[in-house]
Design a protein that fits this description.
Helices cover about 45% and strands about 15% of the residues. The chain is an alpha/beta fold. It has a 7-stranded parallel β-sheet, with helices on both faces. Strand 2 (about 35-40), helix 2 (about 40-55) and strand 3 (about 60-65) form a beta-alpha-beta unit. The longest helix is centred in the middle third of the chain and has 29 residues, at about 100-130. It is globular.
């Protein structure tokens, strides 16, 4: 399928590896030029070179922490008027409700709610002026089915979801869509970290820990970055203009819900 976005420009945050890289690769395959961001410069530059060589698009790496005002300004200086914005930042650490104080919540909200809101506020005016734009926020399946030990993430990402619910309907008349993708477990560094924790806690191998987790997923496997990128690219395409303010689970059926 021709996605109809060849020649457009996208900012993809957290794009050096994992789900962010999956999104960047899928957009590049569709002919989109990229400005990609991550904190580790060497990994980011290598990713940029690989994507540019493979797909023949322009890829500009901007190494910084996107959750800081300085990082946001650096990325926006490299691409002030993108056609597409993919918001992505790592989640806060797990814990118990009794572990967290105000500073923990402020840090989580800054990273996972206010950072994507800041970037949206910066780029939406130019998208509206052009009469076309796509924003994708990578959140979490915990928005639909809260995960007890991820209370900080549950709170921050739910706040972002509420903001998108209203804002998406305000910008839709101008040809701009905002949607959220809610990942379950994918074969990324995050899954490795989770499996390592289970392996250590239960005294089992990493393979056994992964197999145990896969039993909780109806698809009986972890998602891949390519799975995720394909959904992101479609939502950014010319064919997705009637999809507004949605929260799309990509979890292999792990969340058992009709809505």
């Amino acid at each position: 399928m021709d996605l109809g976005i060849k020649g457009k420009t996208a900012i993809v945050c957290g794009a050096s590896k994992g789900l962010g890289r999956g999104c960047a690769e899928a957009l590049a395959e569709a002919g989109v030029d990229l400005v990609i961001n991550a904190r580790t410069e060497s990994t980011l530059i290598a990713t940029a070179e690989e994507i540019a060589a493979k797909y023949g698009v322009k890829v500009t790496p901007v190494a910084c922490d996107i959750t800081t005002p300085e990082g946001q300004a650096k990325v926006l200086a490299a691409c002030p008027t993108p056609d597409i914005l993919v918001n992505n930042a790592g989640g806060p650490p797990p814990g118990m409700w009794s572990d967290w104080d105000r500073d923990d919540f402020i840090a989580a909200i800054d990273a996972n709610m206010l950072t994507p809101i800041t970037l949206m506020k910066a780029v939406l005016p130019s998208m509206m002026e052009k009469g076309w734009g796509r924003v994708i926020n990578i959140t979490s399946m915990s928005v639909k089915s809260p995960i007890a030990v991820l209370g900080l993430s549950n709170a921050a990402r739910a706040g972002l979801t509420g903001y998108v619910g209203g804002t998406s309907r305000q910008v839709a008349p101008h040809g701009v869509t905002i949607n959220n993708i809610l990942p379950g477990i994918h074969a990324t560094d995050r899954a490795i970290s989770l499996d390592q924790g289970v392996s250590a806690a239960q005294g089992i191998t990493m393979e056994e820990a992964a197999a145990q987790r896969m039993e909780t997923i109806p698809a009986r496997r972890y998602g891949t970055s390519a799975d995720f990128g394909a959904m992101c690219a479609f939502l950014c395409s010319q064919h997705a203009g009637f999809i507004v303010g949605q929260n799309i689970l990509l979890d292999g059926g792990a969340v058992n819900s009709t809505m």
